[in-house]
Design brief:
This protein is an alpha/beta fold. Helices cover 28% and strands 24% of the residues.
Length: 390
């Protein structure tokens, strides 16, 4: 099988829906994307291992390995060298807000539009294009391509990969959209539902029930105190927003004006800094509502909406960071969003995030990659591979 050119690969990847969603009506398999990537990698001489996720049947990871010709590594070993990693899933999309077909790569106004064009299926087209221009028989260090599933929801793909017994790359570059600026550290992500269960009743007799909205009012007061405490207590100067954040994102309670509200639910988002454990932040959250729970007999329940994602703590002076800074001409930065990096880092490799496209386009209608960025990005990715593996 011959490998397609850059634009053909890009178009194929965009055309294959691979949405991850908590809502099962929207959730799709990424198998077609994985199979295409595996076929292209095999055409370049890579040995491929496809694994179905234990926690999400129908979702798949791909590990593709290319060793130097004199390597004595066994078939299932992935030791040393460089790993280029990315996820194959996308977020859902709102058809009413897209001005074009999200599954057709559309070139207009010097932009390439498509769902996943920068977040982040397009990264794989950049990798494979770079490899087409290299003499892979001169490889000196192993080269690994990792394609994961479900990054946009549970990060189950990365969590399964970090348990791989024979995967030990020396370096990893995760190609999330950073405009090719290296990222060496980022915050984590926690999403929680705070559910108040009261007692409904007729609004004409308030004391006959227990109004969940009124209890939620007390809870919100405690959360705003916690929000300020986090801002005052913790700080890491690398970040533009140097403190952990707490956002009240969604609330729903009751069903009618003349009924005492029996249930109210609030969804919050918290972003821990490196150095603050998820367990510590969870304890602070539970502590903030503890008094209310005592007053109202366990009426308040705190639920994880997904497995918490820890912060990623890298170092600004690692060899990989210095190489990325030299090639990109940009100083490594810290960012407030999160990626698969804290799981990949558990493999023991130097890890950075660095990829094509702007994070400002991620999760947006009419997601696009600026065409003028293609050639310089291709050159940088090729140089990262050459200096790490040749």
């Amino acid at each position: 099988m011959s490998i397609p050119n850059f634009m053909q690969m890009y178009q194929t990847l965009i055309s294959l829906p691979s949405i991850s969603a908590i809502d099962e009506k929207l959730n799709l398999s990424n198998k077609d994307v994985i199979n295409n990537l595996a076929n292209w990698c095999q055409s370049l001489g890579f040995e491929c291992e496809i694994s179905e996720l234990e926690s999400a049947p129908g979702k798949y990871n791909l590990l593709a390995r290319l060793n130097p010709s004199d390597s004595e590594n066994g078939k299932k070993e992935f030791h040393g060298g460089l790993m280029l990693a990315g996820h194959t899933d996308t977020v859902p999309f709102d058809d009413n807000q897209w001005s074009m077909d999200p599954f057709t790569l559309t070139e207009t106004n010097n932009k390439l539009f498509g769902l996943g064009s920068i977040d982040m299926k397009g990264f794989f087209a950049f990798i494979l294009h770079a490899l087409q221009g290299l003499d892979l028989s001169n490889l000196k260090q192993p080269l690994i391509i990792l394609a994961t599933a479900d990054e946009e929801t549970t990060m189950a793909g990365a969590q399964q990969v970090c348990q791989h017994k024979n995967l030990k790359p020396a370096r990893c570059i995760i190609g999330e959209p950073t405009d090719m600026v290296p990222v060496f550290t980022h915050k984590g992500h926690m999403s929680n539902a705070i559910r108040i269960v009261g007692k409904s009743g007729h609004s004409s007799d308030p004391d006959a029930g227990l109004n969940a909205i009124e209890i939620m009012h007390l809870v919100i007061g405690k959360l705003l105190i916690l929000k300020q405490e986090l801002k005052n207590k913790y700080s890491v100067d690398h970040f533009v927003i140097p403190y952990p954040t707490l956002n009240l994102g969604h609330i729903h309670g009751g069903d009618n004006a003349n009924r005492i509200c029996g249930c109210c639910e609030l969804h919050i988002d918290m972003r821990p800094l490196p150095g603050i454990s998820v367990i510590e932040l969870q304890a602070m959250l539970l502590g903030s509502v503890n008094e209310i729970n005592k007053q109202y007999s366990n009426a308040v329940e705190v639920i994880d909406l997904h497995e918490p994602i820890p912060a990623f703590k890298g170092t600004a002076d690692s060899a990989l960071v210095k190489l990325a800074e030299k090639i990109s001409g940009e100083k490594a930065i810290a960012v407030n969003y999160c990626t698969e990096a804290p799981f990949i880092q558990q493999l023991g490799c130097e890890t950075i995030i660095m990829g094509p496209g702007s994070i400002n386009q991620a999760h947006q209608p009419d997601e696009y990659l600026a065409i003028e960025k293609i050639k310089p990005t291709q050159q940088m990715i090729k140089q990262l591979i050459v200096e790490s593996c040749f």
